[in-house]
Amino acid sequence: MAKRIVVLGAGESGSGAAILAKEKGFDVFVSDCGTISEPYRALLDQNGVAWEDGQHTEDLILNADEVVKSPGIPTTAPLIQKLMAQKTPIISEIEFAARYTHAKMICITGSNGKTTTTSLIFYILRQAGLNVGLAGNIGNSLALQVAHEDHDYYVIELSSFQLDNMYDFKADIAILLNITPDHLDRYDYKFQNYVDAKFRITRNQTAEDAFIYWAEDPVIDREMKKLSSGSTPGHPCGLCATLYPYGFTQPNPLPVSEEELALKGRHNVLNSMAATIAANVLKIKNDVIRESLMTFQGVEHRLQYVATIKGVRYINDSKATNVNSCWYALESMTTPTVLILGGKDKGNDYSEIDELVREKCHTLIFMGLHNEKLHEHFDGFGLHIIDTDNLHDAIQGAYKAAHDGDTVLLSPCCASFDLFKSYEDRGEQFMAAVRAL
Q1: Which end of the chain has the least Cβ crowding within 10 Å, N or C?
Q2: Which of 64, 91, 118 is where one domain is finished?
Q3: CATH number at residue 18
């Protein structure tokens, strides 16, 4: 009798996992408590995968031999608790897909910069002529690519949620860019739990593998000292004792000057350093790395220029879903700024951006269903504050508040799920509204 695989969640990762499981001969069932979008329904139907949406039928799920869980489903969900109680193995799509490929895995995580760094490394590898796929939080799901394609390398952006359910997976190159408080609502509001999740990227690495990390990040530095001293025996994310880590600092030699980098801003210098080290580990020629760093076009919704209207620049940084990411955006501003922030709070501490808000912003626009925490923190700053619960009013408020030579910056600090489908949806709507002014 075929082993039964149940996939919970039928988005990009879940649908891909289901297709791969079906191809490998498993009895597959997909369950999503929301509505499965039409493209994924069609994909499942074309491949003969049984599915349901709008509910979780427990009789069809609790009999699974193994469950592939969407990273968006928290461990605290009642169904997950029942599966855990009966000791059903629960894994991520990345963990499942990796069983069926011998490709080299270049994996990137961090609170900020991971999408840019992942995209840049993918670009460098393609420029070098390598057969490479892009997966994880961006690109097509790893499982779907393993099922239908045959790459020699995968560059994978990994969130802490994806790392949580990875056990036997191993990164050939693991990159940890930084760790700042994020998603604390998923980690019992304990920062160390989130830190431990990020360090899982080193799990199962050996002396043959590379661990690249930002050595001047205070949290990473503290954790590395704990691990190297042996003060955390049995640490679930402990580094292999023989693993050679590449701790990079600034200044670190780049094959181009900072002025020649296509990506601007201090944070992108660090991202470019990490990508360069990864490319060097893979023995990619220096001239390919150099040309790639000078021509890479960047990532949508990350400090993306939209338009200049009546002398005011509009910048879409919708991907800034945490406070530290907004810090980097503000740090790169060179003109007086109208900052639009707000959304679904994840246990944010806004004090990190206090100094930059006071220095660079003259107007703050709160755009969320629940702006109370923003008011509590920023009302005493003496800045012009506009309170809204929709994008239209936020854009109109920014248009009226901004002066010739200013910048209007959407850098929300928060998740998008109170008003939007995703940060991409938020960014697209922002750009459309700006262009309609």
Answers
A1: N
A2: 91
A3: 3.40.50.720
If asked whether residues 233 and 100 sit together in one domain, one would say yes
Other CB atoms closer than 10 Å to residue 95's CB: what's the count?
22
Last residue of a domain, one of 248, 264, 295: 295
pTM summary value: 0.77
pLDDT digits (tens, 9 = 90+) for 211-270: 999 888 899 989 888 877 655 444 444 444 444 567 777 666 788 988 898 887 778 888
How confident is the model over 169-217, as pLDDT tens digits?
999 999 999 998 766 777 778 888 889 999 999 999 888 899 999 888 8
Give the residue numbers spanning the domain of 355.
304-435
Omega of the bond prior to 251 within 30 degrees of 0, cis? yes
HSE-CB of 204 using CA atoms within 13 angstroms: 10
The neighbour count for residue 56, using CB atoms within 10 Å, is 17
Q: Rounded to whole angstroms, how far apart are CA atoms 171 and 9?
A: 25
Beta bridge mates, 365: 340, 386
Q: How far apart are CA 66 and CA 68, in angstroms?
A: 7
